[in-house]
Amino acid sequence: MKKSRLIERGCAQLTYLKLPRQTTSLALGLHVVVAGKAMKPVLPPDQIPTLVRPDGLFYDNPAWGEHAVSFNPDEMIREIHAQFERFVTVANQLPTHLDSHYHATYFHPASVEAMRSLALKHNLPMRHDRGIGVSVLEGIQHPVAFYELDHHQPIEVLLSFLQTLPDGEIVELCCHPGYSNDTLFDLDSWTTVREIEVAYLTDPRVQAVIASEQITLCNFDVFKK
Question: How many structural domains compose the chain?
């Protein structure tokens, strides 16, 4: 029995997704967006007026929480289903799992309903709810825990996390590794952070702990087995 399974994942903007043939085995989840900075809905803003600001973008925190009570449930459900349908059209496949930007969908009953219905209908696993908002996980496969890599903390914190994983369980490590260039630097405020995370994940000390703790690296496809 291998000690633990660790899920690594990254986020991608589906609008710009173009997968080469050699990446067809890549686990690609749907990152549902109903909140965030400069985030656009899939549906036209005039079809979901309660979910968006006057400029047609989703509310960011903390305004999202302030307006959530006035969100129209039907608008929320239709927008999440529209994102799911857009994903399938662009990726030409079902997502391997469902998760949510800012974990926002865990905090509104209509988005909980939409996420649960999609997960159950298509037998998809979901990200752990972290004990926040409304639990959506009953009857749905999911990692037993969620850990987000924090580039503000020393690498020893990551090493400790890896050394204390529960035996025989699937745990998600959320991270955003990547490389930067001048063009990306103008578009993405996280470019420097992404390179720091690459350095953490490829550090020989991390690799050594993965080997010594008998950790198996995997993705959400493991739930199909």
Answer: 1
